[in-house]
Design a protein that fits this description.
Blueprint (H helix, E strand, L loop, with lengths): L6 E6 H15 L3 E5 L1 H5 L3 H10 L4 E4 L2 H7 L8 E4 L8 H7 L2 E4 L2 H14 L3 E6 L11 H9 L7 E7 L11 H14 L7 E2 L3 H4 L9 E4 L19 E13 L4 E2 L5 E2 L4 E6 L16 E4 L2 E6 L7 E4 L13 E5 L5 H7 L4 H6 L5 E6 L13
Parallel strand pairs: 1-18, 2-3, 2-9, 3-4, 4-5, 5-6, 6-7, 7-8
Antiparallel strand pairs: 1-10, 10-13, 10-17, 11-12, 13-16, 14-15, 15-16
Helix pairs in contact: 1-3
Amino acid sequence: MHEGTAATLRIDLGALVANYQMIARQVAPAAVAGVVKADAYGLGAVAVATALADAGCRHFFVAHLCEAAVLMPHLSQHAALYVLNGLSPGAEAQCAAIGAVPVLNSLAQIDGWAATARSLGRALPGVVQVDTGMSRLGLTPEELTILRDAPERLAGIDVQLIMSHLACADQPDNSFNREQRARFDRIAGQFPGIPRSLDNSGGALAPDVRHGDLVRAGIALYGGAPHGDPNPMQPVITLEAHIMQLRTVPAGAGVGYGLTHRCTAPAHIATLSVGYADGWPRHLSGRGCAYIAGVRAPIVGRVSMDSMAIDVTDVPDYLLYPGAPVELVGPHQTIDDVAMLADTISYEILTRLGHRYAREYCPVPVAIENRSVKI
Ligand SMILES: *Cc1c(COP(=O)(O)O)cnc(C)c1O
């Protein structure tokens, strides 16, 4: 236990690397990129990218240029760092200076990057993203037609990848996946010889599809289920809170703000050191749970900012004392379980993990390190 912190967040870098290697085997000969946006889904972009790089990963994606600026000094010169959200107008010089590869999401971004290449007098690397039906980012069909008739607009841009993004990859049976794959293949034909990237985690683990040249894995690396149950990935995090106080309350006692929980019988209540300011969803008020030595303890009343109450009446007394460990995420409750109870997805649970946790990184066992997976 780490005194003075909300909880202990353990991040198993060995499990992360095992997940990376599992995906790499699945999609070979495609390479696997690590998607490390949002501080590697809350787990620490530098630690995660370093572990992946040691395992042979050479491609990394962040969302924003500011994330690239932080991560770049930690990457080797052989690694490529792509910025998914592309180039905002005026950011071109900074992007070139950092050495990040922008994902060019519109003709205007292509023009801006090509102009920067001209003014610097050297070619600049870029990725061209096309919209294959998600209506989020990337060149529209109209823009693609314009680009086909005016390919010189890419002059000065060294196109590294043609990419798109699947809208329904978490549902491998959704027929829109096939539709998007067909559209992507058709469009990629307009860019002969350029490597292709379409799949995220869900796409990478979809059966019976070709994965192009590079898959972009995020949630599966971090132990989230790419397609719901069963989850083939190894869990990467555990979150252990501790008991701050214990009390025995009589039947009829109310618990927490608004007294939304009323004890129907005498109860043992434990107050934990984690609240919604730590990313523990307030939506779990009265519906989530924690585990103490495998015994389920329901969250009672509202989750507060810095604490919450659990009913520990069913937990053996010898496990209950100030400082006692309480599992919030671990062998009895996965990030997908927590997400389900909170009406959200594991991505949101991870990316909201708080900054008041003691973070412990379990290193990669030597046995699985350096079994490099090549591009
Ligand atoms: C976030 C993101 C990914 C990673 O998605 P996962 O489902 O976490 O694997 C891949 N590609 C793009 C464009 C993304 O925005």
